[in-house]
């Protein structure tokens, strides 16, 4: 009978560890937990101020929330959506590119509604410190919830799902990207680990029911399963709409321990990442 540890098994051979420490192994990350309003310009201004504040505090990597330029509500997705074909014509991409360039930081730009040939996607854009768009991740696993009398919401009523994983090599390490519900799928994180990712960034907007039950649990699980860093960034809570957001943007280290976390109010979490902890843990 073949041994479970037979390394001639292609699946096992593929499990070799491509981990390498990047040039900058220690740096500060900022999770900008933003309050989101129904005024897009105000949301852009607020995000710009938050990015500047985080950069002034020494952050080299910055993560924004899921749906930070637009309320997480079916009433707004289509109205707020932007076409990303021409970056200069997109107020959101222009702001992120300018901010990354003027502060010299890597930005995982949360997510915003993207319009492409009449279809909508829930999309995250990643910018390098030169202001260049490095990658675009479209949320793969669209969220649906139906708790009678409490909450009912189905993203696939508005968005198409993305079909690509996203790994970006940056000055602050190899970053894997997922958006919110993508966090609940261990296969995606395992695939990123296999490809040598140091940190997975998940802009996310869990609601209060799934948040209380699962938000911290799944982040710690993804971190400890794969022995890498997990960063999440949520909008702050707004209880006026039908979807009440959990908040609690968090950084988890490869041991599964939480390094830093927020409450549900608008804030910036700044914390230090030390990638040598990945080697130590493994
Ligand atoms: N926005 C989401 O994808 C929410 C989600 O995944 C959840 O569990 O809540």
From TrEMBL:
Q: Does the keyword Repressor apply?
A: no
Q: Which GO terms describe its cellular component?
A: mitochondrion
SUPFAM superfamilies given for it?
A: Carbon-nitrogen hydrolase
GO BP field: asparagine metabolic process; glutamine metabolic process; oxaloacetate metabolic process
Tell me which PROSITE patterns the record gives.
CN_HYDROLASE (PS50263)
Superkingdom assignment: Eukaryota
What's a Gene Ontology MF term here? omega-amidase activity
Q: Name one Pfam family in it.
A: CN_hydrolase
Pinpoint the CN hydrolase domain residues: 27-275
Task: List UniProt keywords, sorted A-Z.
Answer: Hydrolase
Q: Which InterPro entries match?
A: C-N_Hydrolase, C-N_Hydrolase_sf, Nit1/2_C-N_Hydrolase
Report what the protein is called.
CN hydrolase domain-containing protein
